[in-house]
Amino acid sequence: MGKRGWLNLALLLAVAVLAAVVYWQPGKQSEPASPLTPLDPTAVQRMTIERPAAETIVLQRQDKQWRMIEPLAVAANSFQVRRVLEPLTQQSLQRYPAAGLELTKYGLRPPRAKLTADGVELSFGKVNPLNSRLYVRVDDVMHMVAQNDISFLTAPWLEFVSTAPLPDAPLAGLTLPGLGTITKDQAGWRYEGPSAPQSADQLQALVDNWRHLRALRVRPLQAADISQQVEVRLASGATLQFALQSDADALVLQRRDLGLEYVFDGDQSQRLLAWPPLHGADGSLPANEGD
After folding, report:
1. Is 10 a residue whose pLDDT tops 50?
2. CA torsion sign, 69 to 71 to 77 to 83?
3. In terms of Cα–Cα distance, which of 133, 159, 135, 120 is closest to 37?
4. What DSSP line would sit under 264-285, residue for residue?
5. DSSP β-ladder status, 141-145 and 134-138
6. Secondary structure (3-state) at 212
7. Does 128 have pLDDT greater than 70?
8. Which one, of 244, 176, 256, 272, lies nearest residue 220 by Cα?
9. Which residues make Cβ contacts (< 8 Å) with residue 154, sequence separation at least 6?
């Protein structure tokens, strides 16, 4: 290619870049960065997440705890809730009046996802190919933000379910297959069954293992031959029933009333269905692993 040809090519590329800038950054307003919304995430009470071709998720704060209301009434995953709250305070780096814009071009009609928090609606669109910023519409303004990953908004609803099978509430008792019944009274925890623990600390350690239980994942209820049952009694008077399946590979707790399964490593059977081992010359217990 001759010198003139290279010059023409360079001019064409320059025009293309300018056209792209005009296309993707219409009427840019140079203003100081500010949050997308005036909301305080610690005060938000209700959020709705809408996605094309996926279930709508409704989250509600109740007694300082987040719960999923739709598509299933169950405790919410606190980590996922925190991620959903983050966009409310993200900085708007650029903003444009939405009126007159071809919103389809920016992935905002329809949006990839829509988040409504206490009546404030955020629509999430495409990522700008020139600067990797995300288009977000709030009311009549289209914003651009640096955080462009919205996978937490488009995730399956099961990922918003808490991995804790037991609520964050005081326990009153447990009935465990092959072990017996543990009940709390004014004197503390007491045991009824075929194989008593060697100490009160061992009894307390088993209860703590259940209190701090966290599943690897939550999945829809699977058809399985599960004959063992676990009963958990709360101090409030409520009773939770779990069907249990355990082998070398996995331990599964089924909440058939919710249509959910909580899946754990197989070695959890030793922590949940047997007395924690004593060790050391003084008979001390291993430290509790917590969450």
Report:
1. no
2. negative
3. 120
4. EEGGGHHHHSSPPPP-STT-PP
5. antiparallel
6. coil
7. yes
8. 256
9. 51, 54, 112, 113
- Is the model's pLDDT at 291 over the cut of 50? no
Domain boundaries, the chain: 27-160, 171-272
**C-alpha to C-alpha distance for 94 and 135, rounded to whole angstroms:** 9
Q: DSSP state, 156?
A: -
DSSP alpha helix (H) spans, the chain: 3-24, 78-85, 151-154, 200-211, 269-272
| H or E element at residue 39 | none
List, for residues 187-209, the tens digit of each pLDDT value: 899 999 998 999 899 999 999 99
What are the start-end ranges of the E strands in 71-170? 74-75, 91-92, 94-97, 113-117, 120-127, 134-138, 141-145
Q: CB of 112 within 8 A of CB of 103? A: no
Write out the two tokens for 125. Answer: 């669109």
Closest listed residue to residue 155, CA positions, set 96, 79, 101: 79
Residues with Cβ < 8 Å from 223, sequence gap 6 or more?
none
Rg (CA), the chain: 27
Placement of tokens 């090519």 in the chain: 9
Residue keyed to tokens 């959020």? 47
- Distance, CA of 177 to CA of 204 (rounded, Å): 18
Strand partners, 180: 176
Q: What's the CA gap between 20 and 105, in Å, rounded?
A: 12
Q: Which long-range contacts (CB under 8 A, 24 or more apart) does 100-107 make?
A: 101/26, 101/142, 103/137, 103/142, 105/23, 106/135, 106/142, 107/135
